Predict the structure.
Amino acid sequence: MCELKFYIKVYGCQMNQYDAGVIRRIMEESNFIEVSDVKEADIILVLTCSVRSHAEIRALGQLNFWRRLKYEKPGLIIGVLGCMAQNLKDLLIEKFNVDLVVGSDQYRFLPKLINEYYKTKLPQVATEFTMENYEHIIPKTNNASVVGYISIMRGCNNYCSYCIVPYVRGRERSKSLSQIVTEAESLIRHGVKEITLIGQNVLAWHDNNADFLTLLKEIDQLDGYYRLRFLTSHPKDLTVKHWETFSQLKKFCPYIHLPLQSGSNRILALMNRGYTKEEYLEKVMQGRQIIPDLVFTTDVMVGFPTETDDDYKETLDLLGKIKFDFAYMFKYSERPYTKAQKITPKVDAKIAQERLIRLIEYQNKITKERINSYLNKECEILVEFYTYPYSKGRTKDNKMVIIKDKLEIGEIYRCRITNIKGWTLIGEIIDKSNCNVQNKVYYIENLKEGL
């Protein structure tokens, strides 16, 4: 068979972005060629999320559009991958005439499934859970990026009552320590200066006797990069020992995304979150005491079944006490398989929407207050982009800063925040010399090689 061209469209979280790199590696090792123009493709792959219905609706709308391309290009293959493939496999084949339905544990078999489709012209479905972790596969990434991600685990064992993840990504399993270190070393060789470890609950990672803190120490001691981040952390697993270890790491960024979901203990119990609001608040206070410049962001849900005005007020009160720098806020979205489907009474959609609007307004005031506190502060930024005439860099606590100057991508500079427009920090460089002197020739040569 001649070389075939594939196009991949990715929706959703960083885990999906990472998985796209795994898929690219698998496809290219089987001599498929990626193209950036969907009209050039022989195969269209859609990798999308099912955590909330909105992502599925967007992807299905795109599928409707691409189905028309089949009339213009007979033989075009359309495949849906990942969580939505697990969740909607029958619908995808019967209503959307999808040719490939491939679950998140079956990416290794994509080339085989494509070849089988060409032989039989029959839809290929592979959605079995196999506890796959994609060991020994180094994802193909953007060679120009100075920020890299490593998936350290897949699946989830928590079974929060609203969450579909355990049903579409399977049970929790951890990638080996040696594989994670190998991926980190590969990213560093190719110019990545900030590594983010990702998983549904990274605090639960383990490999034999090694726990997440062991892993962090291993990655922290690697040379050649500047910063280390991770997400997402589950509040129930966070301890004082974690904060103490984080504070001792050389490359740890003082930024934690810690999903709250609700400030009502009654709702938290119905959600099966495994902590109370008092316990959550105590963990935040412990973190700020041990790491004074620590920044928190969070997720907050409104309209969970049976949520009352009092429950909602408790959430607002807790946000006022903690003062998150930012929050991802959304209405409860009913998902198949989950226990929350059976919890009644449901919150009226109009009431849930009103609560969400008020919540966003309330948190936006807090976020604005937090942003304004950066005025005239000095901070270090890692430069990620340059688009004439601005460079964009990120602080260690995850704030993007715009500098009207051409700075070297992948280097750290010290700057002062001189202005704030909306939520955007504007800065000027204090010292044009880099905060870190690196071997630029080594960086550039490795960048040319590509992953």
